[in-house]
């Protein structure tokens, strides 16, 4: 349920499950593979191997479209009804920070829901990557 965290990433991330990710640099055609492991509380770890360097680090949910509210309704004869409403399964945003084996860093932003997501990562050398999480 990555959508409750990342999601995410983004939020099977919420259920603590493992997800796969595919990463492709915008200036190349190689698809790199990585893993996302949620802890069930809106954060977790992720890793990816980009050619000859491996990167790993943490992610956390920044926001989601989940909602919770209270209501009170009034009817005829002074009848009153109260309750709560909840909405889950919307879109979540996630931020990830990873350190790489060559001393560089990888910073990522994701949007996801329903156990999948998309995002973008930028490394310390300003190389941009598109990312799919599934």
Question: What attributes does this structure have?
Answer:
two-stranded antiparallel sheet, 134 residues, Lipocalin, disordered N terminus, mainly beta, 11 strands
Characterize the structure shown:
There is one protein chain. This protein has 134 residues and is an all-beta fold. The protein has one domain: Lipocalin (Beta Barrel), CATH 2.40.128. 0% of the residues lie in helices and 64% in strands. The strands form two sheets. Strands 2-3-4-5-8-9-10-11 form an eight-stranded antiparallel β-barrel. Strand 4 (43-50) and strand 5 form a beta hairpin. The protein is elongated, with a radius of gyration of 19 Å. It starts with 6 loop residues before the first strand and ends with a strand.
Summarize this entry quickly.
With 134 residues, this protein is mainly β. The protein contains no helices and 11 strands. It has strands at residues 7-8, 18-25, 31-38, 43-50, 53-64, 67-74, 80-87, 92-100, 105-113, 116-123, 128-133.
How would you sum up the global shape? elongated
End-to-end Cα distance, whole Å, is 11 Å
Q: Which segments are poorly predicted (pLDDT under 50) over 5 or more consecutive residues? A: 1-15
Query: How large, in whole angstroms, is the Cα Rg?
Result: 19 Å
Q: What name does the CATH topology carry? A: Lipocalin
The tally of structural domains comes to: 1
**Order of neighbouring strands in the sheet with most strands:** 2-3-4-5-8-9-10-11
Number of helices: 0
């Amino acid at each position: 349920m990555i959508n409750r965290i990342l999601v995410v990433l983004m939020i099977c991330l919420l259920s603590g499950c493992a997800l796969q990710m595919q990463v492709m640099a915008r200036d190349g055609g190689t698809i790199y593979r990585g893993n996302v492991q949620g802890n069930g509380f809106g954060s977790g770890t992720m890793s990816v191997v980009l050619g000859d360097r491996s990167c790993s680090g943490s992610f956390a949910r920044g926001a989601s479209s989940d909602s919770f509210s209270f209501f009170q309704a009034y009817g005829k004869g002074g009848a009153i009804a109260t309750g709560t409403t909840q909405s889950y399964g919307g879109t979540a945003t996630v931020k990830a920070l990873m350190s790489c084996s060559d001393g560089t860093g990888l910073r990522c932003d994701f949007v996801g829901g329903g156990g999948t997501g998309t995002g973008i990562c930028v490394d310390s050398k300003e190389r941009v990557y598109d990312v799919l999480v599934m």
